[in-house]
Design goal:
Eight copies of one chain form a homooctamer. The first copy, chain A, is of the alpha/beta class and about 250 residues long. Helices cover about 40% and strands about 20% of the residues of chain A. Chain A has eleven helices and eleven strands. The first copy, chain A, is globular, with a radius of gyration of 21 Å. At the C-D interface, helix 8, strand 11 and helix 11 of C face helix 8, strand 11 and helix 11 of D.
């Protein structure tokens, strides 16, 4: 509610069109629905321009199901659920319509959104083990109706595989670079692309990888410009941001 | 050089329009100029769509001056120099045209670029001590001809100052959030904005701040979507990326 | 035992009211009961003004049960047990009266204390996954007869939910802010409240969260005054301290 | 502004006592003064119940002086300045009335507040090298008119010195425990006191002290209840919070 | 493809020996085979001088089997599989010829390579618990036809055991030193050997070992010259590099 | 073998008492027995003055059993096995005489050594959860025939329990202080004892305890003199060292 | 004061030999002298069996001088001052008798103690750069009248230098091993000595040494028994503890 | 001295050719010269196959000069001095012949060794700021008579500069990759080279670079085989090891 809205209301009160009590209600209308354990943001589609998302980790299957149901009832056509446990699928599927991808652990309650034709988002993954996080990013971007191109297994150990796809990189409107271990993929792509690159460090690796710290620091220190970073294994965050940039 | 270009050249060779030696030259033309201690990327404007930048830290005044001169001679109209030591200004100014801002330690060799009217980039800074990094971002964005709005001293300790500027945030095409200490500004802005937010953690603070680690981790773990992060104190990186997104 | 007490005893010895041996006993009475593996502090209610607590983690069900029994026999009306394994409940319930809350893993042996009317403690939690820690704080505060108000799911990603409760925050005598991920909730509440805020970082999150380090550093570096911090996931410590402050 | 205030205004508008434009002004009156590089919070005394404070580190002497002057002009009687560089004293003293303590690096612009008689705050410091931080806490607490008792050089290496002051500890309404190295002082005091204890880890020490990390972790893991922690070397934060608790 | 190759092709195009389209194919022939989830590098034997390796961790048994089969079909005689889960052995053995060593978790698909006589690689391990990593190095080196001498249980706690083998160390062409805990073995061997020493820190140990960090830092800071380090537990990397050096 | 021994041998060779070959054997006699996967140090009793110990973690039950058998056959009367898995007990007991303590996970193969009367070693443990590590230290010290006094549950949260035992502390010849969480026990004992104190940090605790790092740093930074530290959870190391000091 | 003492006093009160007030005084006699900023422990010689020490770092020259004077006046014959700034020497020398060693930064106020003949303490240092810390240990041990043998530059990079001194190591009653970089010296000596070894990690080194962390972790994880560790660069602590053990 | 040598000596003693005392001398001849503060290893040329090196950091100019003089007198023709302070040059030059390179801070006392023709060592550096470390490696390798090729400013931000030098990389016998920031250069070179690659992380960068930790972890986690790592900024170690490998 901006100043103009407020001025409008005040003028209606002044002119008698609106009683003080009704005005009070209008100004204070709760923009969310309260489930007790969670406050559902039913105006988020308006405020942020996108549908609500359920972060599945740490929630019980009952909580996930109840939140998703409530959203669908509030008029959402589809709800994205991230990091959703495989064991919850049957329980939820019995209660609400659900698409589930077991590699990325992404669920979509309600309708699966249609792909429409926004500029191309390229999702590049360094190794086979990085694919689950890359798919989380890819499915998230597709959920928001983006056109996604996947470039998997293009890590710098066999850098010619990446360079064979230089045209795809040149065509992208935004690129998500997913890599564990030393995370060099983000820097190398950042050095050849002319669009924003979102680095997603993964926890793939062992030893001095320290749960993804290695790739995270590597990407933050990228010597290439135009690279920014999201949290370790945060495929959703990268896909969401890529969609935001793609639609500007 | 993409496949079509290559095919063209090969067809010219086949038809005799081009000798093999001339073709070889065309394919292998060095895209940079070699100064010995630095290889200058004279085709970067083409490849990345932006002018070259000199990262000033760790370089001598002679090196900075020589690289900048060489770029200007190669046809660049203006060259951005970041983290440039204040003591180098006189030396460089005597040799090439230079604008210098001592707060952000940014120098611009050659012409100062004209502001043109791209969508609005908002640069928000939490505290007075974060302003040098914020200005590095702001001047970088302006160097690339973006329209920049500054919101300084809007940290969460006095959050009403931020909320007074909610309209500015709603209007932005991309926002840079600069904050040290606990770095909460990025999350709070990320929660209310509907455009991409680039977090810049600063090393401002003391004790368990650990040189910016606190704000860095905070921003990486932001519970708000649409937030990505660049390196600690990397105002340039944020300004550059913001410009890239703004121009999409 | 302070100097005045000691002087009293000495004067009684001098006047013959007390024999040296009885005096020795009075001065040296062991203020605890020794179970071999644990020394139970039977005078803690006097010394610290509160009943004893059993830290359940790392103890066997037999140890927990024996310590609690021994306390109840020593005259405690109720004993708080924190981080108590769900699998121990049946064993303990068969032996002593026990209330158990499975979300917070808090047990209360003996009588459940009555709520009395001290000033209001507000327990705010950022996300659904932070509720177990928040409940540990809430039940602890209620165990010590405080009036507790819960504000759950008010994290900064949807900051208007928090601001709808600004009156509750203004009314509080002390606030516990429970948050994982970037932990910004403590700073934001610290910026608008005029009472002490106790931050409880939680280990909720993943990746660069590093087991709660992110929220911990964030809260320690809070730019808002009046904020202090307890250990990661230490809901009990926050509830106990809030009770102490509330009763001043 | 709470709902009642708002309802009042709306009723005045309804009754014609207030025009919509005047109502709009009342609701939106900026609660701060804008200096460009800093937004001064002139209503903080009302909102947080205390006077504004200037965090001196990272600010120039001109900035400190301008902010303090502006506050005094806005009606503040005295302004606390923390971590103020010794070299700034002369510059500021020439322009506004200033008290300065070189050990704690605390400045007070305007009148020095009178001590009044609130319950006792005890400031305990482990070693001689911890005194500057302890004094920052003590002077802050005195600035807010608290009654402060200092217990210095009572570290656990000579624990009888602490136990000689057990009566002082028993009398306190809140205790600030300042310690570097292993920071055990907070735990030991926490074990014998029955009031809230605020731990301030200091960066005093060397080697595996890692800039105060050792004392910080030690205090966060305190096995004693009723202990919370502020940032390393944050004497101001502890003094401010102690005052808040003392006045409840 | 180097310049000479390219010139050759161009001359053939010029002379009409080669059509532009065929030339294009020659220049762009994909040097790998695409399985969708993995791009197999069929020219690696040529490019790096060694056969391809499958990093088994994080791959399913189906993926491992499909990649290995595809390589064998492409003409590889044997394929090395590292960190291969014991539970996968039966599945893979039913489909392709497989040798498997359960201590080192190394599998070899296809033929087991014959030992030939290159200079001696010594693999030294500090303790019994370091043997799995040491065997990963030893079997890798043998896979590439090197002559391997094992020196196990020669840690510095019983340093005479090492010195009894001083002749073996003097004869080596390259040494791999595998050690957990304090990792001193690499430094001690580095002090007496006159050939390159490759340190492999292991995660063996507990407490302040921090998952191998202790041995890693120790080896990186070795005061002996000629020592370099690979990742924690990376027996394969050490064996591969030792083979490379041995064959120079 | 020292110079005098060597001179003796050489003189016997010179006088013809000893042939060169026999001399060579004497000088080079292997001071250990080789099991392939482990070299057993049969002269350790002589060299270090104590019996050999098997570090059980990371070894299979077959390895533990074979090493212990071999030692007993070589003439050791008893062999200490640390961190021995509970599940191995039956297997080993069927093959060799074994005493096993399930709390400390210590096994003793062969005869249990008799207690003899060396000066008193005090083992102090802060909390109930620290007892397994404390018992590892205590049983180790008793294995080497020391007189051990246990002081358990004397942490600083109830410091009067410790002070009731001040006479025991004064009588000790060496003290082992076992504590997790903030580890303050080592400093407090170090401040009142006049003998060496060996700190054993434990991994007991949670959150910012970081697997024992908190107690480790705390003990290393102890402001009390005469305190040294062994690895986290290393009860054996402390008991062994205490025995060494006790027997000086 | 133990129970027997207390009983004695009480019996004297009972028999009229002592008035209650005098008894009170006896029980409460302050065991230290208060300088305001420091409480001097004048009974420490009795309680800990050694003279008081001043930790010089972080103290002004005036403070050091005043504390030392006060101790000498209280009857101490000599006072050890550690980590004393070179620039303070002249100031202190003008006021009290002072011996100063600029390499170790150790000062001795009053008389220099005479060497007497306790069992031998060996101080071993790995490199030339570790000598300042080694000398701090050596001079401390000599201050407490121990017989000290120095073995410098015996690091593991040239391990034969150490083995030439195997007899010296065999003769020692306690050994201090001082090493930076990878700190392997402590483990190697621990493997061949049969007496307690005190490791002192130093901050000597660079890069992944991280201010001494490398050597610290290395020593804590020593695979040799009988090794304990003090803080990084804490030569004083090692010398003090070595003296304690030497005199047992 | 190996077994054959020893047997020879013993046989000479047996035959009377050698007296026991002379034999003792032969066996025990000290292989170094003792300067008090340093033991100089005069047989190192024999034992390690290379001349001695002085690590200059932390040594005074007098120490450096005395050690170097002593070595030259012992017959060394030239002595390498690393990390030598610029301010020491004049002092040393007045006393012994010295070559000094101020960029790499390398000094060579005595004769400058002649370049001879061993296989090519390539030293690649990512950025201009990495050159000092790269030069330390290059001059070290040249000191040991290796043929060195420098590839500077070939970081991955402008990866075509690296690929223009693919022939140089293919020709190398060993490659040193020097890089700060994200250190991706080592992985990229490791992916295209078929010879050993030695990674040298540098401390170049800022923020989340954490003094070189970022590049260090990145290189340790390299997904390319054949890469090993030395300490941060350890140009000497890389040059020395490269020389060792080059001469195999």
């Amino acid at each position: 509610m901006n100043k103009d809205d407020l001025k409008n209301i005040l003028e209606q009160v002044s002119s008698g069109e609106l009683s003080p009590d009704d005005a009070l209600l209008k100004i204070n209308t709760e923009p969310y629905k309260d489930l007790g354990f969670a406050k559902i943001d039913t105006q988020r589609g308006v405020r942020k321009g996108t549908a609500e998302v359920i972060y599945g980790a740490g929630k019980t299957k009952e909580q996930i199901c109840e939140i998703a149901s409530s959203m669908l009832e509030s008029g959402e056509r589809s709800v994205l659920i991230t990091k959703m446990d495989r064991d919850f699928v049957d329980y939820v599927k019995e209660r609400i319509p659900l698409f589930y991808d077991s590699m990325s652990k992404i669920g979509i309650a309600g309708e699966k959104p249609k792909k429409s034709e926004f500029g191309k988002i390229v999702i590049a993954a360094a190794g086979t083990s990085d694919i689950p996080v890359a798919e989380e990013a890819a499915l998230t971007a597709e959920f928001y109706s983006n056109n996604v191109v996947r470039l998997y297994d293009v890590g710098v150990a066999g850098i010619h595989r990446l360079f064979d796809n230089v045209d795809t990189i040149a065509d992208a409107k935004v690129i998500v670079a997913v890599a564990g271990m030393e995370g060099a993929l983000a820097s190398v792509i950042g050095g050849i692309a002319s669009c924003p690159v979102i680095g997603v460090p993964t926890s793939v690796g062992y030893g001095a990888n320290f749960g993804g710290l290695s790739a995270l620091l590597s990407m933050l220190n990228s010597c290439a410009s135009g690279v920014s970073v999201v949290n370790i294994d945060n495929g959703f965050g990268a896909g969401y941001l890529a969609s935001m940039i793609n639609k500007i």
